[in-house]
Amino acid sequence: MTLGEILGVLGRRWYVMVPLTLIGLLSGMYLYTSVPVAYESQSSVSLLDSTAAAKPAPAYGNPIANAGGSLVVTADVLIRALQSSDAAHDLRQLGVTDTYTVGFAANTSGPLLSLAVTGTDRTKVLAETTTVTNFAGEQLRALQQAAKIAPQYYVNATPIVLPQTPVSRLKSRYQLVAAVVIAGTAGGFFLSFAAESLGVARRRARGREPAPPRRGRRARKGLLHRPLDSTTLLTGYLALAFFIPSNLDLPALGGVGTPANVFALLGLLWYAASWLSGRVRPAPGTRGPRLVMCVLAAAVLLAYVADASRSSSHEEVLAADRGLIGLLVWVSLVVLTSAGIHERERLDTLLRRMVVMASVVAAIGYYDFFTATNIADSFHIPGLQSSVSGVRTLDRGSFTRPRSTTAQSLEFAGMLAILVPFAVQQAFDPVRKHAGVVRRWAPVLLMGGALPLTVSRTSIIGAVIVILVMLPRWKPQRRWGAIGVLLVSVGAFKVIIPGLIGTITTLFSTFLSNSDSSTQARTVKYSAIVPYLREHPLFGRGFGTFTPDLYFFTDNQYMLSLAEMGLLGLVAMFCLFFAGIHHGGAIRRLARTESDRELGQAFFASAMVALVISATFDALMFPMFAGMFFVTLGAGGSYVGFARRAAAAPGDLAPASVEDPAGAAGDRTDRTDSPQLVES
């Protein structure tokens, strides 16, 4: 459905679109003028161990200071005490009537607390922040007195950042205005096409078919009348996702408001308009990925209800709202790839474009590594702001960890790890032999070579999984050649970048010996998740609400899902990953050519990588990684649909030889279903 046709429907149903849009705009203007400006003051408190407890053995018996062997757990105990209803009652008695928040300070793994008070009176907010800061120290002392700990072993809460001058916070007001305006516009859009669909159905019921387009009429040209399909829209999404740093977003939408995500939501509107007007139907045999998205949607919505049923803070409510927006983005990507693409060639084109764009992002990572900087820091796009506080270039050993256009080096590593199997498959694809050696193998070299440059366990684990999954399925000649290339590559890295291989080896040796500080910090956080899970075991605290600003980094998607969506959320996560694994196996089982069997193995390897490395970082909280994962999930379901329809078609020809590019190309053409898009 072209943009011109969409505008034509909206013009015919102006009596639906215009009133709802005006209601949204007027409501937004009212909220903008009526909602007062909020001011926020912040302070930071650090927990310092007692002098006596810091002395050498023997240990001194302060259970709070030594709970879990780290003051991080002590800080968690204090945070819970300050968030309790008793503490809120005591603070109200002290004059703190505005909203206050307490949690772990962002981008820290130590016992550093961040306190904040938000209100409409600037002077009162500053005084309340001072009261909350002093109350935190008194509460910690009261906890230790109740435990009958000797005063010389007290843990001290020491302010290191005094209450700051309150600053205006317009973001919450902008978010309310944007939500109302978007709701009015989207409601008018959907109801307009629903009215159009009802009108067409009514005319057909009366025996009056819509008039067919006039023959001989010259087709209109221009942007508004250019045919659109899911591949075109997804290409636009990929370009925005890859080439605009993923930490930049629209201020009113927060972390989910990246330009790529906004474009994906527009793509969902396009699909809904095409579906309501009868121009497109879901591709047959592709329900699998959409069914698992229903499981994820159920987990997210039930977690949203759980968040609304408890005494959550204003920040958590906004975070839960952003979680719903993120869910819609993921649904859009899966629907567009699995239900919206009806031609095999268009799906192949989409995967090739994704690999090429990811290769460019990998090349930017090389620049970051060798120049010890980050090129994305120089991107200043009007209207966008960074959603990640304190984004900086990270170092490990003597090496700079590149992040390219991603928000963090782990996201960069994870994104490359799930896409490199497709680069390898396309390089070996006999259909693409005409492309030349450089065009086929450059993506493999760029993406595969960038993985160790991130100097992270995540990238190496992902690379090892890809090797272990794909190598056994290759013929011996190719397998031994690939092993030789890998050995030569390791030697080349050792010569060209001295110390890199040793640093990576040290990462794993310290991990296995449990002497790595990063691993120890994560282990402590795992135990800190358990109390939150016990409070809401089935549906969690609310998807997107367990933010580092209020709590702490989990560095584990499964632990984060347990905290936010409970056991149902964990089941939904495994459903997503195992659906991707199933798609790879089904493509291999139904494929008629060796090229398609390797494509199925690429999907299998990609999903296996996502399954494993999600235990090493908050995978789906990073927009670029999450977007690429859901695109591949939907694409796998779409390929399964093509394979099933080809297998069910009567009179199939014998599979073409793998060594014959022309035969493979002809076989691929035979398996292409007739498009089911109805364009006028």
Q: What would the keywords be for this entry?
A:
single chain, 680 residues, alpha+beta, five-stranded antiparallel β-sheet, two-stranded antiparallel sheet, 21 helices, 61% helix, disordered C terminus, ligase activity, transmembrane
Gist of the model:
By secondary structure, this protein is α+β, with helices and mostly antiparallel strands. It contains 21 helices and 9 strands. The chain is globular and about 85 Å long.
How does the helix and strand content classify structurally? alpha+beta
Shape: globular
Largest sheet: 5 strands, antiparallel
| Unreliable parts | 213-217, 652-680
- Determine the strand fraction and express it as a percent band: 5-15%
Instruction: Tell me the radius of gyration.
Output: 28 Å
Residues in helix, %: 55-70%
InterPro entries: O-antigen_ligase-rel_domated (IPR007016), WaaL-like (IPR051533)
Domain O-antigen ligase-related: 444-573
Keywords: Ligase, Membrane, Transmembrane, Transmembrane helix
Protein name: O-antigen ligase family protein
